Inverse folding.
């Protein structure tokens, strides 16, 4: 596969939260790339740092959090060097976000037409009529019936799934190069989830926008994404092409995640889970963060943090004892 | 919409009826009008005569019905001390009260909302903490004490403002008001500040709490993700959401202002309804007390009604 | 084996106490409240004068300004009033009644409100709607006016003031408790528990109270400050306690009569002390509210 243009290069990203109880290293030295039009998944447990990574890319980290270090090179420009007012030109236009909970992402006192239009007013130079046209187009493209009539409706007059569609429409309004979707379907009904995901994939392909899909749901990852980053306790533990990782997971955590997905064909009495619990984020262990729960951990895993091992074909793992060898 | 209006009006009437009964019942306990009208050594015959004249010999519920009927006509009897019709007297004093209430309200709105929004939007700043500290102090101040302190230091000692009373009247678009003259303003400043003080503090706290709550909402973060700059996030996205609870509180605040005019007018010898009431209470002037209470009850009921309407207009989620 | 800590030790190690120690406003405000209570309880033992024992008053001592002003007398630190009464002693004695009314008033209002709320929530139906409707309507009228009106009708006495405060104050407690009762009641029906009438009441009682405890505590701190102010205002207007049981508000009212002649201290210091007490209570109440309200954590 020929390499497409890289639109995002994240290097050594560190986002820490300074709370009363201590410092939480939500994202601790994370590196990854993204190509134009690619769909990258970020998967892991709640609190693993996935959402924070997403928010860090557009620098929307609120107190007490802070992006402490790293470079976020978007289309050749390091966003960390730029001012906040520059960022407001990037957000919504070149990088947009889809939030997790559609019930709370829209402002209840304004019509969805107005909220949709806002993006166009901010970033595009259109006449009022043109904006209106575009809004209708956008609503149509996300599958909202009677688009023109519904522009004047308020968010509470839409169902959850509909609202999420509106939010996707808002995210697409300015033809962004990158969309970051933070658990976009978690708050929705299972039946709606599939629809929304399908919609997102389709739209992303049509517009050739890259998509970062953040989720804890491996099933979603396997359906939609080209590549995936597996995160644990603020670090990427494995990354590679999705199908490859699913077929041959190299990190014990990834393996654990995969095997805890119930398989309808298998006959099993109990669901297998990863033993243990996520460590206390205020007191992370020194070596590999997963060592406590890892069935294969050896002494070195407790002492040192694993470095990256490349398994070829863009498959990388951060483990002293990867489960698979290099792909020759 | 129509159904809503009808229902509300029906409720308002019930409330007013209940209030009128309570007022009637309680005020018939206050003072004995017979003794106010007759000298102490009046004969039993004279006493009986007055009792009959005042209708005090009739059973209670009949007296109430008479009271109600008269009230609807606006007749509360003549003041025992001023010998004028009670309601008329109250109406004549109402404009003066209205003046300080209006000025106090304006101060509350301007200072309360702006300081509340500011300290809510930037809660960590020194100035915000300062504002918060003062607002807690503000709600701890007894307004009569504030009034006395202001009078003593600014009027008696420094002579900047007149010590008491209302200023000269002027005409403003045909309305006679002391706000139309400089002298009027000199007189009204201290009473309004005294009246507004606690209110401003309360509003600051409420608006600030509302701001803090609102700014944490997802839709605020989403607006930022769309590229809205922080100023517009504040004024376009957050503010309208805060107005909803603030409008509700305003109705109550207006009521509080009116209630506290009783004290403020007493301290500043301001010739308004509040002072009239306090004097009437001290003089056992029953007609004025009943007239005042019912008048003010009607005011509150109407204010609440308007607030409800405003609320439905601002918040699109509310279905009428 | 870990040693079982006593309740006091548990408290001292709790997060609440930790935050309390770290917060200067919490410490200062609680000290303010404590000192006011101590002064009220033990003040009369150390004041130079009993301002209400008429025999001890000397008219020659009248109109003395505070000790640090020319003409003042070190015996009367904060000055004297027109009858020779020592202002500081008067404040100490007055604060006793003021605080008494504040705390006792809240106590009665809370009990009444909690009981009404429990009944309303438990019984439900028509009774509940009527009670809640009364509550809503009452809240739409300013409490000051209601208090004024009640005192006018009942006449001046300490118990009447307490009754008036109870009648004003029950509403907010009732609302909170009724809400919680409803929540519990619904849970009970879903949980298909024992349907013996008596047990139900006890269950609800036991389940409702702990949950509303924090809200009731926070509300009560606000109410104490508010009641003290209301009582002071009523007394100032001559509609509160009778002359024989003077409060800080009444002292201010006495002082008002001589304010224009320049005797500012007679009303200034009692009022200042009211501010001190209420400010302390409100500060502490704010701290409590931030601590006990899990949402804001």
């Amino acid at each position: 596969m020929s390499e497409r243009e890289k639109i995002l290069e994240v290097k050594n990203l560190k986002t820490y939260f300074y709370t009363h109880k201590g410092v939480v290293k939500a994202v601790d030295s994370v590196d990854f790339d993204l190509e134009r039009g690619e769909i990258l998944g970020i998967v892991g447990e709640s609190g693993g740092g996935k959402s924070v990574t997403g928010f860090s890319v557009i620098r929307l980290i609120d107190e007490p959090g802070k992006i402490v270090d790293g470079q976020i090179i978007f289309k050749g420009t390091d966003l960390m060097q730029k001012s906040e007012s520059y960022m407001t030109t990037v957000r919504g236009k070149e990088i947009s976000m889809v939030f997790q909970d559609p019930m709370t992402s829209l402002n209840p006192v304004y019509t969805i037409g107005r909220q949709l239009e806002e993006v166009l007013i901010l970033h595009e130079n259109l006449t009022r009529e043109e904006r209106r046209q575009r809004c209708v187009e956008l609503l149509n493209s996300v599958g909202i019936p009677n688009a023109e009539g519904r522009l004047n409706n308020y968010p509470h007059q839409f169902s959850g799934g509909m609202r999420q569609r509106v939010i996707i429409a808002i995210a697409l309004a300015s033809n962004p190069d990158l969309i970051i979707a933070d658990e976009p379907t978690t708050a929705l009904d299972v039946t709606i989830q599939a629809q929304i995901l399908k919609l997102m994939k389709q739209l992303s392909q049509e517009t050739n926008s890259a998509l970062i899909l953040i989720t804890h749901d491996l099933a979603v990852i396997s359906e939609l994404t080209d590549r995936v980053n597996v995160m644990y306790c603020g670090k990427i533990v494995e990354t590679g092409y999705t199908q490859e990782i699913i077929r041959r997971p190299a990190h014990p955590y990834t393996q654990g995640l995969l095997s805890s997905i119930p398989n309808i064909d298998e006959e099993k009495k109990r669901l297998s889970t990863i033993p243990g619990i996520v460590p206390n984020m205020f007191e992370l262990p020194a070596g590999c963060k997963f060592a406590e729960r890892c069935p294969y951990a050896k002494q070195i895993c407790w002492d040192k943090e694993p470095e990256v091992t490349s398994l070829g074909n863009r498959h990388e793992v951060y483990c002293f004892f990867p489960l698979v060898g290099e792909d020759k | 919409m129509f159904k809503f209006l009808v229902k509300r009006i029906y409720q308002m009437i019930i409330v007013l009826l209940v209030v009128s009964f309570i007022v009637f019942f309680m005020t018939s306990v206050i003072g004995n009008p017979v003794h106010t009208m007759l000298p102490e050594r009046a004969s039993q015959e004279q006493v009986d005569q007055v009792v009959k004249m005042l209708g005090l010999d009739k059973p209670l519920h009949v007296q109430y019905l008479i009271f109600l009927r008269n009230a609807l006509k606006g007749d509360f009897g003549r003041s025992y001390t001023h010998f004028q019709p009670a309601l008329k007297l109250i109406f004549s004093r109402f404009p003066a009260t209205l003046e300080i209430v209006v000025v106090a309200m304006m101060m509350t709105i301007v200072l309360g909302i702006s300081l509340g929004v500011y300290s809510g939007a930037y809660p960590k700043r020194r100035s915000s903490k300062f504002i918060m500290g003062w607002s807690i102090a503000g709600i701890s101040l007894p307004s009569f004490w504030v009034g006395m302190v202001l009078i003593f230091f600014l009027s008696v000692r420094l002579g900047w403002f007149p010590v008491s009373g209302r200023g000269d009247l002027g005409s403003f678009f045909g309305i006679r008001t002391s706000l139309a003259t400089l002298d009027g303003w000199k007189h009204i400043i201290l009473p309004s500040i005294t009246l507004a003080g606690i209110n401003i503090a309360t509003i600051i706290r409420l608006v600030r709490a509302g701001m803090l709550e609102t700014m944490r909402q997802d839709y605020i973060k989403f607006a930022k993700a769309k590229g809205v700059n922080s100023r517009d996030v504040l004024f376009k996205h957050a503010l309208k959401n805060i107005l909803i609870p603030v409008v509700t509180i305003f109705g109550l605040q207006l009521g509080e202002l009116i209630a506290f005019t009783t004290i403020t007018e007493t301290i500043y010898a301001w010739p308004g309804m509040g002072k009239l009431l306090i004097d009437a209470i001290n003089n056992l002037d029953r007609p004025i007390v009943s007239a005042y209470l019912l008048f003010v009850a009607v005011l509150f009921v109407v204010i609440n009604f308007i607030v409800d309407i405003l609320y439905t207009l601002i918040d699109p989620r509310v279905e009428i | 084996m870990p040693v079982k800590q006593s309740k006091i030790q548990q408290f001292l190690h709790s997060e609440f106490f930790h935050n309390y120690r770290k917060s200067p406003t919490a410490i200062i405000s609680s000290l303010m409240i404590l000192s006011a209570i101590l002064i009220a309880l033990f003040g009369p033992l150390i004041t130079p004068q009993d301002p209400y024992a008429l025999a001890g008053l000397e008219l020659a001592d009248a109109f003395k300004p505070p000790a640090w002003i020319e003409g003042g007398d070190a015996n009367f630190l904060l000055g004297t009033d027109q009858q020779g009464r020592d202002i500081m002693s008067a404040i100490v004695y007055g604060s006793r009644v003021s605080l008494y009314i504040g705390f006792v008033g809240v106590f009665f209002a809370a009990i009444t409100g909690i009981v009404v709320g429990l009944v309303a929530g438990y019984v439900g139906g028509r009774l509940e709607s009527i009670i809640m409707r009364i509550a809503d309507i009452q809240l739409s009228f300013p409490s000051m006016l209601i208090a004024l009106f009640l005192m006018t009708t009942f006449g001046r006495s300490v118990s009447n003031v307490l009754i008036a405060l109870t009648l004003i104050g029950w509403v907010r407690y009732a609302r909170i408790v009724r809400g919680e009762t409803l929540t519990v009641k619904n849970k009970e029906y879903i949980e298909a528990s024992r349907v013996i009438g008596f047990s139900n009441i006890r269950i609800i009682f036991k389940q409702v109270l702990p949950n509303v405890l924090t809200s009731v505590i926070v509300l009560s701190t606000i109410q104490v400050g508010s009641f003290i102010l209301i009582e002071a205002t009523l007394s100032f207007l001559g509609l509160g306690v009778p002359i024989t049981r003077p409060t800080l508000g009444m002292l201010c009212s006495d002082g008002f009569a001589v304010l224009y002649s320049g005797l500012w201290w007679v009303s200034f210091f009692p009022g200042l002390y009211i501010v001190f007490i209420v400010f302390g209570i409100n500060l502490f109440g704010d701290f409590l509210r931030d601590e006990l309200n899990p949402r804001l954590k």
In short: Chains A and C do not touch (no CB pair under 8 Å).
